[in-house]
């Protein structure tokens, strides 16, 4: 059932509060599966790697210079 699907979205270069705001996103590619991290630093490092991989993937798909 698709109503049970949860996605986390990271907005490049955005700083602000969107709680309570309707935002439309599109799923282009799954970056990685869910996993636990031993520390906040390990999570932060993985998010940075995920961001770089996502930017490369989107550029390769013609989404511009991200």
Beta-strand residue fraction: under 5%
Coarse structural class: mainly alpha
- Total strand segments: 0
Listing every helix as H and every strand as E from the N terminus to the C terminus, the arrangement reads H
The total count of helices amounts to: 1
Shape descriptor: globular
The major β-sheet equals: none
Mean pLDDT: 89
N/C terminus separation: 33 Å
Helical fraction: 25-40%
Query: Gyration radius, to the nearest Å?
Result: 14 Å
Low-confidence regions: none
Structural features, described:
With 66 residues, the chain is an all-alpha fold. Helices cover 32% and strands 0% of the residues. It contains one helix and no strands. The chain has one helix at residues 40-60. The chain is globular. The mean pLDDT is 89.
Topology of this protein?
Blueprint: H1 40-60
In short:
The chain has 66 residues and is mostly helical. It is 32% helix and 0% strand.
What are the main properties of this structure?
32% helix; 66 residues; mainly alpha; 1 helix; single chain
